[in-house]
Design goal:
The protein is α+β, with helices and mostly antiparallel strands. It is built from 23 helices and eleven strands. Strands 1, 2, 3, 4 and 6 form a five-stranded antiparallel beta sheet that branches. A four-stranded mixed beta sheet has the order 5-10-9-7. The two termini are about 30 Å apart.
């Protein structure tokens, strides 16, 4: 768990509440019960922004996007992630979040020369013959510069923005605290597995701040396609790469969305779209190592391969992997969807534990059929692969399906791949391209040679377990007794949990009242600057009121 100072936490909470009020995001509270105290906590901030129609009026999706952009990199990345999950947020808001851009105004101080001196030492001046001081690109976490080595090789230099890591850690700490409260107090939070999703997300975002990890990912992705002409990955100059800086080959390609230029260079767009899909499924099912940030800004097309198109991938900070069981589920589930075998789809969901074991298969099957059959009335080439999965997840959520964090990146990437493919070729039949990969995966799992290898690999563990056989027999013979004890244990655990929950709610309520009273003892309605010492009390006041209202709101939710 990331630790953040209490003062930093309170100030960031104050900023969060202020931005919620600024953009009128309290509208989300209108249909939720027991939110009166949270609204009271937001009241001072709402008063401040009451006459700002520019921010508080208009489409809720747009206001949400603007608020996220103002909150900074962590929230932008989360917004981009949620834009691919209209299965549990409003689809109109999800569509608006797709407009979130990671591009920001570049910083010019410190200069790239100062940064390189800090990251590579004084010898950095002897490495490059030329560096363009104006960045090629600037994102929320890093900046990229064009340069030339003393050897004459054209490269790009990517550097982490100074101070951004501490900002990210502060926001992650705040989000994880909020997620833990929501998950402990609501069924909704537990179903979404918020703390697990954020833990996975924490690893992803912190990896983005370590450019050595990106360099390693880039090297591995390149080696995976070393024997293929489908994908090219730039060379990494490891001798000039550190945690805060990476130097790599500068590529000369056409942005994948620039169809006019692609056509001008004679690139076969139909073949290009099919190659893109093939690359994705090869990464998932053959390599188990897929580029999980394949938005248009990271994908280029080589000018030198016209009839046999070649993609160029950059920015390999975010990489996805799946467990064998997850890949097996995914392949079998998708094939069942292809074959319109809804009973198998339902059975696989229950078998995998994604929906409760008590779920009635025929009821789940009927619900899936009601969603999928209207979609399959269209020609396959007109059916969105990714959107069908979204519809499936929406249906599954009504049966208390738990969100699987390991597949979130996969779904996000699939939607990107399909969107790019359809942009290049509106007639792209993603199903036809994907099906051979799925069938090949399933056949490999049933191959006797593969099965024998699995048994061989598992043999030491099996032999080790044989020593526990007497204990297993004893346990089996005493099954009824153990089951009875288990029931008693569960009952006792439930009673203890209820007592602990009641005590926590009392503490939350008392703390909330204390914070609100402390906050109201000041005057939070004045527009202030953080740098004015006399106004520190106002910032703390607003933070106290906000925190107190949130804690009291939590007690109301928990009481339900």
């Amino acid at each position: 768990m990331l630790r953040i100072p209490a003062v930093t936490f309170l100030y960031r909470l104050h900023q969060l509440l202020n931005i919620i009020a600024k953009y009128g995001l309290d509208d989300f509270l209108k249909d939720l019960p027991n939110t009166a105290l949270i609204k009271i906590a937001l009241a001072p901030y709402k008063t401040k922004w009451a006459f700002s129609s520019r921010t508080r009026k208009g489409d809720i999706g747009k206001r949400t996007r603007l608020a996220i952009e103002e909150l900074g990199p962590i929230y932008i990345k989360l917004g981009q992630l949620f834009s691919t999950r209209p299965d549990f947020i409003d689809p109109t808001i999800a569509n608006e979040l797709k407009l979130l851009q990671d591009s920001v105004t570049p910083f010019l101080k410190p200069s790239i020369h100062e940064l390189l001196h800090n990251y590579l030492g004084p010898s950095s001046a002897d490495i490059f013959s030329d560096i363009e001081e104006t960045p090629l690109a600037s994102a929320s976490i890093a900046q990229v510069y064009a340069a030339t080595l003393k050897t004459g090789e054209r490269v790009v230099i990517k550097t982490i923005k100074p101070g951004i890591v501490s900002v990210i850690k502060t926001d992650l700490g705040l989000l994880k605290k909020i997620a833990a409260i929501i998950e402990s107090q609501t069924q909704f939070g537990r179903r979404l597995r918020l703390t697990e999703v954020l833990s996975d997300y924490e690893k992803v975002i912190l990896n983005e701040t370590n450019l050595q990890i990106e360099a390693a990912n880039t090297t591995k992705l390149g080696s995976n396609f070393a024997e293929s002409t489908n994908l090219y990955v730039p060379k990494i100059y490891w001798e000039y790469t550190r945690q805060n800086v990476i130097v790599m080959e500068r590529i000369d390609g056409i942005p994948v969305t620039n169809t006019a230029e692609l056509k001008a260079h004679g690139i076969d767009l139909k073949t290009l779209s099919e190659v893109g899909v093939d690359i994705f499924f090869t990464q998932v099912f053959d390599h188990n190592f897929f580029h999980a940030d394949m938005h248009p800004g990271n994908i280029f097309v080589s000018k030198n391969h016209k009839k046999d198109p070649q993609y160029i991938a950059i920015d390999c900070a975010i990489i996805g992997t799946l467990e064998v069981a997850e890949k097996n589920y995914l392949a079998r589930n998708l094939l069942a969807i292809f074959n319109r075998d809804y009973h198998e789809v339902a059975r696989l969901h229950i078998e995998s534990g994604w929906v409760p074991e008590a779920t009635k298969t025929h009821e789940f099957e009927t619900a899936i059929r009601s969603v999928c059959e209207p979609i399959f009335q269209k020609p396959l080439k007109e059916i969105s692969f990714g959107q069908l999965l979204v519809s499936l997840f929406q249906t599954s959520s009504t049966f208390d399906m738990e969100i699987q964090p390991s597949l979130v990146l996969l779904q996000k990437t699939l939607l990107h791949v399909e969107g790019l493919g359809r942009q290049l070729n509106p007639d792209l039949d993603l199903w036809e391209t994907a099906k051979p990969h799925l069938e090949r995966w399933n056949s490999r799992q049933l191959n006797p040679v593969v099965f024998a290898k699995k048994m061989k690999d598992s043999l030491p563990d099996l032999l080790g377990e044989m020593t526990n056989l007497p204990a297993y027999i004893s346990a089996f013979l005493g099954l009824n007794e153990i089951a009875a004890l288990k029931r008693k244990e569960l009952l006792l655990r439930e009673q203890t949990h209820n007592r602990e929950k009641h005590n926590k709610l009392r503490i939350f309520r008392l703390s909330g009242i204390v914070f609100v009273v402390l906050g109201l003892s000041f005057s939070p309605l004045v527009d202030v600057s953080i740098f004015e010492l006399d106004n520190v009390r106002i910032i703390i006041s607003s933070a106290f009121i906000g925190l107190g209202g949130c804690l009291l709101g939590v007690t109301d939710l928990g009481a339900d």
